[in-house]
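for the recovery benchmark. tokens below, seq after
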């Protein structure tokens, strides 16, 4: 007989090693068990892309510094073959790359760590900008004057004028629609304020959102009233400093100044890190050690990717438990995990509605294919194309109706949906609609439970910061895989036996009562 002792030794070793790694991360590197306990650090990576023309190249990128709400912790740059210098220009800091000769596609990287610090008081530029009067062609000049006249009547100073101008430009009047064709919101607001002799300048900020990649900058307007100023977001109409908005360029200079290249683009990747204050100040993650197994040492794009990947084992554990212990039937073994990952991107309600629409429509169309007697490969290929068409059709309908949430159904894995439709269609033909509802409903229920587990902030924090948890999950999965007992849903087969036992017990009790009488 095969001994189970090595199996249990492996499981125990996985559990102990995983638990030891988690304890080491907590006590040695002071990584908190729960999110939000320590200091918040934003790691931001700017990627500069351009085409070099085979001659000397000089690229100058605006970079942020300490400002209200944020303290600069660390900055670095990656530029193979390029010279690099951090310089002060026009009151602001810039990173300058240079090379004697370059050709073809070029990529330059700048990384900065900003600590969220409510006590940071380093001010933005308070130098009042010069008011520039520009000649505006007709009919835009007349429209500007009319909008300014209406806004001035409801304002008391430059700050309230800016606020009222944003309200006027947001409504659906003819003047607002005409001016929207003339300029984008931020330059338009600045030009109108200058027309009213109110000092204002263009700022560019970065909206901080954990895990975002290829994020552009947001145009903002700094409006002055005497020595005081306020910051306005022309796109949303919001006034004042936003907590999750980092000012990237605030000296009225170009974000990127490029000589010797063309087709330039700057994109940003960001990730939020929960670090203890002393760890953040010591910058421990800037000097990785082989004992400190940390994903923070990877590039930011890979970190953002791993934040999602490391949630998959949690979903797998949920599926294993619900299938082996509870006995819930699903259509496909791990399809619920993929559906749960899609729910994370779309939100739960939108994901459920989108899944039901796609699968329901796909089953109707698939029923027609069953009459054509196609080969399996051709049939699956046709279903995949139909799924793509269904998703595209409903995305267009959702956009036309103004339901922007509906467009998120594109996050569903199309190949898996096609196989799901195929399996359910075959199951319908062989077992009937009852079994389809049972397995389809089971898949959705397991997907919802997996989504709730994977979408938890605590789970997200632990899976990313404590890699030892993966070994513990592996140990639990192996133990569950060794279970050979009854599933909970199978216990109902013993109901007649229990009823018979209860009936016999009642009969025996009656006989005993008669004997006593």
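predicted aa per position
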């Amino acid at each position: 007989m095969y001994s189970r002792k090595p199996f249990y030794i492996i499981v125990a070793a996985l559990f102990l090693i995983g638990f030891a790694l988690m304890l080491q991360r907590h006590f040695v590197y002071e990584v908190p068990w729960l999110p939000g306990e320590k200091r918040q650090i934003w790691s931001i990576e700017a990627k500069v892309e351009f085409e070099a023309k085979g001659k000397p190249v000089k690229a100058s990128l605006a970079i942020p510094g300490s400002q209200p709400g944020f303290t600069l912790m660390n900055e670095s740059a990656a530029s193979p073959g390029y010279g690099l210098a951090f310089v002060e220009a026009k009151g602001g800091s810039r990173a300058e790359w240079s090379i004697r000769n370059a050709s073809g596609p070029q990529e330059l990287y700048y990384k900065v760590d900003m600590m969220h610090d409510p006590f940071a008081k380093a001010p933005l530029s308070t130098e009042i900008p010069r008011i520039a009067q520009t000649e505006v062609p007709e009919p835009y000049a007349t429209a500007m004057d009319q909008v300014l006249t209406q806004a001035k009547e409801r304002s008391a100073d430059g700050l309230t004028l800016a606020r009222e101008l944003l309200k006027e430009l947001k409504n659906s009047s003819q003047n607002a629609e005409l001016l929207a064709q003339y300029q984008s919101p931020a330059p338009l607001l600045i030009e109108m304020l200058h027309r009213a002799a109110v000092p204002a300048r263009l700022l560019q900020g970065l909206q901080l959102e954990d895990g975002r990649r290829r994020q552009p900058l947001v145009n903002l307007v700094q409006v002055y009233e005497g020595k005081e100023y306020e910051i306005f977001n022309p796109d949303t109409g919001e006034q004042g400093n936003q907590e999750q908005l980092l000012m990237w360029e605030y000296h009225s200079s170009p974000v990127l100044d490029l000589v010797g290249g063309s087709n330039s683009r700057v994109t940003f990747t960001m990730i939020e890190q929960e670090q203890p204050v002393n760890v953040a100040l010591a910058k421990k993650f800037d000097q990785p050690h082989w004992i400190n197994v940390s994903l923070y040492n990877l590039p930011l794009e890979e970190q953002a990717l791993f934040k999602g990947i490391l949630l998959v084992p949690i979903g797998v554990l949920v599926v294993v438990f619900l299938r082996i212990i509870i006995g819930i039937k699903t259509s496909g073994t791990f399809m619920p995990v993929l559906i749960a990952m899609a729910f994370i991107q779309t939100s739960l309600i939108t994901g459920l509605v989108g899944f039901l629409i796609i699968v329901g429509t796909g089953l109707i169309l698939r029923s027609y294919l069953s009459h054509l007697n196609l080969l399996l490969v051709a049939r699956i290929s046709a279903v995949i194309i139909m799924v793509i068409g269904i998703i595209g059709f409903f995305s267009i309908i959702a956009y036309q109706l103004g339901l922007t949430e509906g467009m998120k159904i594109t996050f569903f894995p199309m190949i898996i949906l096609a196989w799901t439709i195929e399996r359910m269609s075959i199951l319908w033909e062989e077992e009937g609609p009852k079994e389809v509802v049972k397995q389809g409903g089971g898949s959705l229920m397991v997907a919802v439970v997996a989504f709730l587990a994977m979408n938890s902030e605590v789970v997200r924090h632990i899976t990313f910061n404590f890699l030892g948890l993966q070994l513990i999950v592996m140990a639990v999965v192996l133990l569950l895989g060794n279970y050979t007992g009854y599933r909970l849903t199978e216990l109902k087969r013993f109901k007649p036996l229990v009823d018979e036992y209860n009936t016999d017990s009642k009969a025996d009790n009656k006989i005993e009562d008669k004997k006593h009488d």
